[in-house]
Amino acid sequence: MDAAPITPPPSGVAPSEPSSLTDRLANVICAPSEVFEEIRNVPVRASNWLVPLILACIATVIYINIAFSQPAVLRAIQEQRENAVRKKVAAGSITQAQADQAAAMTERFLTPTILKIFASGGAILATVGGLFLMGVGIWLALKCCTKSTLNYMKVIEICGLALLIDVPQKLLRICLVVWKENLLATASPTLFLAHPSAANKAHVFLSMIDVIDFWWLGVLSLGVSKVASIRYRTAAFITFGVWYGFRVVAALLTPS
């Protein structure tokens, strides 16, 4: 009996199977170009931004709890609070008696445990708000400066995937804070300062020159470039500009 004829494969390349979420998250670290090429022309998957966001929040809470367990960090926070009160007394905003009463109340109720709870809650809100605010900034910049038609949630998907880099960043910062006993201990020039202070604007600006932030922004720029089909240089100008614009404004508005 003659062999059955072999049907030739259809012309063109068959679409590849979508990767698993685990593979996508791993590839954000190892092969980000592949991840963003995959999500370029497919509908937004909520898991792509929600899972990294949850992981980043967990890493942030761990970081806060370890950092605020360091006696030197707690002393620095207390000194900064006392300096702020002294400035108010010197300016005549409050009396010394009021300052003493406020200090006693703070010492009584703002225990290290309560401080960790409030700081963790604030950090979670900042992480969640930061994702969506960064998304707004990039989305508006793409609308104003390019011909991109990306919708807002697609930008959030890109930002969410890149946010996974916040996890190793927080693990590194835990090590640096424990080593330097200072909240401004980042992978930045502040490591070469003896006692960097959050009350010193110059020190705060130096802490922003963080090599892990450069890595994150580089990956985020790659994602924007791939998915929005724009040049990498343009995407980098947008992402770096939006991020550092927010950071500089926040630093200038924060009282020292």
What do you see in this structure?
- With 256 residues, the chain is mainly α.
- It has one domain (44-253).
- Helix content is 71%, strand content 0%.
- It is built from eleven helices and no strands.
Topology:
Layout: H1 21-30, H2 32-39, H3 46-67, H4 71-91, H5 96-109, H6 112-145, H7 152-162, H8 166-180, H9 201-207, H10 211-228, H11 232-253
Helix pairs in contact: 1-2, 2-10, 3-6, 3-7, 3-8, 6-7, 6-11, 7-10, 10-11
Largest sheet: number of strands, sense, barrel closure: none
> Which structural class fits the helix and strand makeup?
mainly alpha
Helix content: over 70%
Query: N-to-C terminal Cα separation, in Å?
Result: 90 Å
**Dominant shape:** elongated
The pLDDT mean sits at 89
The Cα radius of gyration reads 24 Å
- Beta-strand segment tally: 0
Please report which band the strand proportion falls in: under 5%, 5-15%, 15-25%, 25-35%, 35-45% or over 45%.
under 5%
Name a few traits of the molecule.
single chain, 256 residues, mainly alpha, 11 helices, 71% helix, 0% strand, elongated, disordered N terminus
